[in-house]
Write a structure and sequence with these properties.
By secondary structure, the chain is of the alpha+beta class. It is 36% helix and 20% strand. The chain has helices at residues 7-22, 33-47, 50-60, 62-65, 68-78, 142-158, 204-216, 236-241, 244-248, 260-265, 272-279, 296-310, 314-326, 376-387, 394-400, 461-470; strands spanning 81-90, 93-100, 106-113, 121-129, 164-170, 173-180, 182-184, 189-190, 197-198, 347-348, 356-357, 373-374, 405-406, 412-413, 418-422, 425-434, 437-444, 449-455.
Length: 476
Amino acid sequence: MNKSLSRPTVWLCLALLAVARLLSAQAPGAPPAAEHQAKAWLAAFNSGDRAALLDFLKINRPSSAEHIDEEMRFRGMTGGFEFIKTEESTPSRLVALVKEKDSDQFARLTLEVEPDAPHRISKMELWAIPRPAEYAIPRISQDDAIAQLGQDLEKETVADRFSGAALVGKNGKVIFSQAYGMGDREKKIPNQLNTQFRIGSMNKMFTAVSIMQLVQAGKLQLNDPFGKYLTEYANKDMSSKVTIEQLLSHTGGTGDFFGPEFDAHRLELKTLQDYVKLYEKRPLKFEPGTKWEYSNYGFLLLGAVIEKVTGQSYYDYVREHICKPARMTLTDSLPENETVAGRSVGYMREGPGPWKPNTDTLPWRGTSAGGGYSTVGDLYRFAEALESHKLLDVTHTEMLMKSRADRPGGDSYGYGFALNNEGGMACFGHGGGAPGMNGELKICPESGYVIAVLANLDPPAAQRAADFVAARLPIQ
């Protein structure tokens, strides 16, 4: 036993070990092994005690023990899980409904164990799912929903789980806007409504609108292979098969670019062409059009297509054709080595450790796949410009928000926009998340609401706040 463990930790570890031993010799009528293991894992995970969880995983799930820091980070994101109900139970398999303790998010836990003692966990999956109808959150008045949002954000800020800004609009009028927490902890600069936050994948929306503007102008065809425009692309199998439409809907099989290769070249990748040169010889991950899989590289390629067709840099095109007509004066994607006076510092945390700047994880510059920075006000103006057809005509706007593929978790995806209809609130938009940054934009045409939340902390700080108010606002 680790002598550095506190007395409560020692007792918890002993209790978990006792549970594991009991699994090999269950009394008649005792819960099945899979159920025992699920509840023992839940107790260890919910404790928030790294040593206790590690000891449990070493015995029962050794492959997860190797990633204990990721497990603890996940614990910090969720606050643990509340067991709701069993959906399926056999001696070797359990499927159960659980809910995050720190949010409204439900998940489905699937756990399988080996048939022989000590019944180690052979499979464990947690998938976020839409909130089941039987556990629906009652919709309340607009005033009450906004009041609850403010109270929730205050609570989350005090608990050091939120730092950022939030805005809610209704039929063209802002009904809530407030900033929380610190934009720079070292310099003690508080966040304000005009603070610029890194937005991660949210600017996939700008890329998708840019592509559709070129389609509307007759300069692109959605069913064209991207190789028609990137004629020198090295992998002809990919460039001749994958269409613009498949890149927009993440169904092209083009894969991601984050990983060891990106980490090794992070500060060398300064243009979209730098990314293309590094990754263009990779094979397809799957046959285009056969399934949905999120692809940052696919949106990187869309940015390269925009540059080829227009003769402008991606950044200049977005400034001129998205930001200018939408009056987005605080949105851009300057390189990280250039000073942006109003830009917040992003803070990341590994497990239960302290928040630290995310500087060493940032790319040299944002791309058409994600990056750059914006404000909640600018995102609201983007939503207003899109809905009032200042960026695209009616036909091409509607094409963006038509479902093209279902996604894990119960929602679907259009062209650069995610679509969901949870609890009757139909919205489209996009989120963004990476260490030290999180954002969410929900545009809900039928109810008239626009919800924009940005945070300079790890996910799901902003997503949680956006989901919280969207679940409570009245539909009519």
